[in-house]
Amino acid sequence: MSVIIQPSLFAADMGYLAEELKAIEASGITELHVDVMDGSFVPNIAFGPDQVSMLRPLTKLKFDVHMMVVNPDRYIPRYAEAGAEVITVHAEACVHLHRTLQLIKSLGKQAGVALNPGTPLDVLDYVYDLLDQVLIMTVNPGCGGQKTILGLTEKIKRLSEIKQANQYGFAIQIDGGINKDNINKLIEAGAENIVIGAAAFQRGKTKSTLEEFVALVK
Ligand code: DX5
Ligand code: ZN
């Protein structure tokens, strides 16, 4: 399975979103990470469903919506309608995780679960059959530009072992502080889909930076 780079739009210059989306596509990348923050689960606010609807016609990139939202069931149908292809919820934010994943699947979307650094893998034990993706947060969520917690490499390795032993089909995604220096160590541990924020976006250089990332993970 080849490694996928997923730029996180939260880190882009909001005044130049259309330009940055073109730069991402020109680099050959096919997926976009869209962070949704409610100011409650995390201390920041980002991308409402109406903004996602406005972005949708600007690009063919696959939208992976990372919902850092308490009780995400309230908003999942709106993001599905807005054009999300993948919807990832936090295990810590769901009272009924299994039901929430059923809701995402019932809307015809791929379903992911994200785990904060302090959350153990065993919360996934009884939902693996519903999962298309597991997101191992490599920082505490809520803002960009933080430093990866490298101790989490063990968690990625353990998840990769569980995946292989059971032949599960979900992708292992990581998010937070990924850069050119640490990316390969995390891929060796088992990461397959890599979200990149601050290290990806610099106006005028986004395309070439992303091309460098793509070359690094080949
Ligand atoms: C963090 C968000 C990330 C963020 C990543 O809470 O979920 O997607 O944009 O940005 P960097 O790569 O700068 O940590
Ligand atoms: Zn994210």
Automatic annotation (TrEMBL):
Bound cofactor: record note: Binds 1 divalent metal cation per subunit.
Residues that, per the record, bind substrate: S8, H66, G142, C143, G144, G145, D175, G176, G177
GO CC, any one term: cytoplasm
Record key words, sorted: Carbohydrate metabolism, Cobalt, Isomerase, Manganese, Metal-binding, Zinc
Example GO biological process: pentose catabolic process
Binding annotation for a divalent metal cation: H33, D35, H66, D175
Cofactor(s) for this UniProt protein: Fe(2+); a divalent metal cation; Co(2+); Zn(2+)
InterPro entries, sorted: Aldolase_TIM, Ribul_P_3_epim, Ribul_P_3_epim-like, RibuloseP-bd_barrel
Gene Ontology molecular function: any one: D-ribulose-phosphate 3-epimerase activity
Enzyme class: isomerase
EC number of the protein: 5.1.3.1
Reactions catalysed, as given in the entry: D-ribulose 5-phosphate = D-xylulose 5-phosphate
CDD domains in alphabetical order: RPE
Pathway: Carbohydrate degradation
Function, as annotated: Catalyzes the reversible epimerization of D-ribulose 5-phosphate to D-xylulose 5-phosphate.
Family: Belongs to the ribulose-phosphate 3-epimerase family.
Entries under PANTHER family matching the protein: RIBULOSE-5-PHOSPHATE-3-EPIMERASE (PTHR11749)
Protein name in the entry: Ribulose-phosphate 3-epimerase
Lineage, highest ranks first: Bacteria, Bacillati, Bacillota, Negativicutes, Selenomonadales
Gene: rpe
